[in-house]
User: Fold these one by one.
Assistant:
Number 1:
Amino acid sequence: MESEREITFTLYPNPEGIVTISCPKCNFCRLMEAKFIKRASEGFNIRCRCGEIFKARVEFRTHYRKEVKLGGIYKNLRTGQQGKVTVVDLSLGGIGCKTFFDHDFQTGDSLEVSFNLDDKKTSTVTLKVEVVRTQDQFVATQIRDEYCGKKDLGFYLMK
């Protein structure tokens, strides 16, 4: 029996990577390891033992990510290389940015990135981050240390 529901339920794994799947019709619950669910972040269909079919997806991010366009500068702490970046997304867990020129970042490199928020105070945020992925001029990073502007960044992300 095909479900008439168009809602896709978002599931959040607990710290051990387990999601609780609860049927919207009969409330039957089961636990599953998120890493074993095919296409978990894209979305998938679930058939409950009561026959209900519903859609779900797993959200692996632990922090809200906001799309932005903020100018900044970086310093590669391994090579000393410096340059300009545009921060394109940020969260309390990391930032994504684009460099203006080719870079030689490697996964695991430590960077110091400084940028101004577009809030009323144009707050300056300085982050020590670790490169987790690069693709062309895009660099995905994860925040590694305590950083200046944490309170300002937290308030900024709440808007």
Number 2:
Amino acid sequence: MSMKRKKEEVFMKVKVSRKLYFPFYFMILFLGALLIYLYYKGYEINMLMLVIYGIFVFAVFNITETHRMSSSYSITPDDLTCRFGIFSKKVVKLDYLAISNLGVEQNFWQWMLDYGDIDVRLFSKENSVTLKNINHPSRFVKELERIMQEKRK
């Protein structure tokens, strides 16, 4: 007898924003442009430099995407689900009735690029979960507040 896992309904699911990694992507573009500039100025670009650049690009994309996939946050009908980790998983389910306060934290650059942290407080000051580097955090908080209001009716 096989047991099928019940598919959970998800209203909204988010991961860490790629906007967080703009400095790394800019560094890739800058180094590539520098290599092209040096080549056209007549400097010799040897194969070792190209291999190192290729390894660097490969490593940056893999590390940033692995970090990005290590956390996800879902708004479901019953709770806010936070999943952390790649090799060892940690799942935190926060019941909507236990959430007392929501806050959005953004520095200037996060505000300009529209991503930031969401602080989810439970009924005690010591218990809180921070959803780090979420794309459009205000939209996520509005959806979460809407679901919380429906649950509290």
Number 3:
Amino acid sequence: MRNLWLRSCLRIAIALFIFLAATSTLSALGAAAGPWSAIVIDAHTRGPVEGAVIVATWSRRGRGHSIGFGGPDPVGVEEVVTDAHGQFTLPARTFANPPLFLPIEGPDLLIFKSAYGGWRFRDTPADLVKQGAVIELRPLTVTDERLKYVQGRMAEQDPRLGWLREGRGPESAYGLPYQRIRRYESAINGERVLLGLPRIGLGYPYLGEE
């Protein structure tokens, strides 16, 4: 009788475990987020910027820090280019949260366009999923500025202006799969060639000079 009771308890425990696991898996699936959209403009002329390369990434976050679980981090990468109206759209995505239900957040953006350096949201990043954000690119009119930016040597002149990627230049693509950022790499190398610099490889694994 006792063995029968133990077997019944074991079956109930197994059924409960399976139920909880299935429920956890379903709850870990995030609802479709996005799409995200923006128009990229010249910060001085206010005109649209065509051909700016956008790299969007989504990462697991724990207490504000990116976390990887034996795989590449970030967990999602998308590359798009602005059209003749300076617009781009990132399609909606659905992610499965990793163990411990750490959230997947994003998109974080990398933006590059020849003869520009640094960018900022005119209002707020939240506009990406609302009416569409406006992103301002800062034009670089002096060759020395373009050299400093593409080499990651441009210093922040006034933090209050809010230009992003300031001081690091455009090469902050470390750890991204190079197959997913080919246009970003090509745009940066096009600028480097124009400025008399050698080509470089971006992303992971490192491609090296082409």
